[in-house]
Specification:
The protein is mainly beta. The protein contains one helix and five strands, in the order βββββα. The chain is 6% helix and 35% strand. The two termini are 18 Å apart. The model has no long low-confidence stretch (mean pLDDT 91).
Length: 79
């Protein structure tokens, strides 16, 4: 099921949240790279949320950083 991507930033914790659904207790979590946590659907294994820790530190050198996931983008039907 397609869903919109929600982006939130916690300035105090310096964490960027990317999500297709609100986090829920049953999700399985895995640190896929240092400071990058994937939260996955327990039945399908699909990545539903990402938490990127130390987000502002990752941007300090002015270079883009790559996430260890594959992404596919589509416009929402409401656009």
């Amino acid at each position: 099921m397609a869903s919109e991507l929600v982006v939130e930033y916690d300035r105090t914790g310096d964490i960027l949240y990317l999500g297709k659904t609100a986090p829920y207790p049953e999700q399985e979590s895995e640190e896929v790279e240092y400071g990058i946590v994937a939260r996955m659907n327990p039945q399908s294994g699909e990545v539903e949320n990402l938490e990127i820790l130390f987000f502002s530190k990752r941007l300090e050198n002015g270079e883009a950083f790559r996430l260890p996931i594959f992404a596919e983008f589509h416009l929402s039907e409401s656009v």
